[in-house]
Amino acid sequence: MLIKKEQSTIRGYFEDASNLSGGNAECVYIPESGDEAAEIVRECNVGKKLLTVSAGGTGVVGGRIPFGGAVLSTEKLDNIIEINAGEKYAVLQSGVIVDNFLKELARKNLFYPPFPTEKTAFIGGNIATNASGEYSFKFGCTRKYVRRIKLVLPGGEVIDVKRGEVIAKNGMFEIPSTGIKFAIPCYKMPGVVKNSAGYYSQTGMDLIDLFIGSEGTLGIIIEAEVDVIEQLPDVFFCAVFFKDSGDAFRMVRELKAQRDMLEGVLCLEYFDGNSLEYLREFCQRVPVGAGGCILFAAQMNSPDGLDAWDRLLTSYSSMDTWFGDTEKHKEELYSFRHKLPEVVNDIVRKNMYPKVSTDIVVPEDKFYDMNEYYLEKLGKAGVRHVVFGHIGENHLHVNFLLENEEELRKARTVYLGFVRKAVEFGGTVSGEHGIGKIKKQFLEIMYGKSGIEEMARVKRAIDRNCIMGPGNIVTVHS
Ligand SMILES: Cc1cc2nc3c(=O)[nH]c(=O)nc-3n(C[C@H](O)[C@H](O)[C@H](O)COP(=O)(O)OP(=O)(O)OC[C@H]3O[C@@H](n4cnc5c(N)ncnc54)[C@H](O)[C@@H]3O)c2cc1C
Fold it and tell me: I want to staple 82 with a disulfide (CB 3.0 to 4.6 A). Which of 91, 102, 305, 434 is the partner?
């Protein structure tokens, strides 16, 4: 085990993509095995020392940023233990970097359906935030693909939680061989497809679902078993540019009504006119004056399927359409899609203001009203922003690009309005990024004080000394 104490060498662990400042810790523990991780946790628990879990550091809500105590980094738990092509599963330590896992799978003609967008993230970070990936429109989020996790609980006990093995009975969980017993949370989660806001809650829920998305507050995932599938054949990418963003929304609405076509769609993304302005700096082909773009990836199921796409696309007057079915062109469109979040993060870092970025999802029947609401409020606020993201899942990210304190204040006010409206519409305040340290206020708007108390009760039952992931999701003290 490595223990780093020199502040100049550990400063990097006090950052993530949220740009939240002020992080500090006395040291960083870097275990080389699950047993070593458990030993560190036991020691911290006995000494009541706060412990923050750190993975790839790509989180956008400050989850891995410590405020006191110590950090435990999973970077050396990076072993892919087994890939079973016959039974379609993989077992891996939590510190495996997503990109390494995907490449190893590709060599065996296999694929991990959550296909996380940020490839430098760790698998453990993805599970802890219930991340969504490139193709979540088709496959859904990480939760669905996690069969088993090995976890160090805050008291230092190591447990294996297998899906289907520990189910809540009469509203209670009992964690085997630990003596930990508690009532499950009973707030009602929103009925939207994606939700990474706070602890999972469902009648008759599975224990594994409580830990998935718990953002390092209920234990440290040291190993996971996940589903894999055969590589996807015949995927093509297409980007369609519109003068009027309304046409982009109309096309998506029409597409969503065509079940046969949706069957093959892997992702359905949107970029507003402001996003396209930034992207043009890197890609001069972006049509000048474009007000919106829809980018999608789909599988070529049949020649009939391609004809249907052709009919849909030609029924709208687009400014330009880019199609990619060769490796080179697919790669170009793929990079185009990925450039924007990187550009936004660079601007945030350069301007030295915290990231103010929404992660709201609303139900399908409220999505178009929500978008109208965004446009009205953003127009009035007059703060630079981009709107982009997963239009297929009613999940657009509004990112404010702040230059001064006044803009920060305005952006926060506007954001609060978005949150209230989304909750009124039955949506969630986090579709994929989690709550971390910077969205707790929104979580309370979503679940009310009683919901937050429920979460605190669950947290205290599992983490009696309240040492783990301090400040994430819910604030509790021992
Ligand atoms: C350019 C860019 C694009 C992105 N796109 C997306 C996207 O499309 N979809 C999406 O969902 N996210 C996206 N993200 C956010 C980020 O990649 C995810 O939140 C990711 O899951 C974080 O993983 P990480 O390994 O970097 O975790 P970290 O940032 O290191 O940690 C995240 C949280 O998980 C906890 N944690 C980490 N490992 C463990 C563990 N082993 N056990 C218990 N708790 C743990 C940490 O304490 C922290 O609270 C993007 C980020 C960037 C920078």
Answer: 91
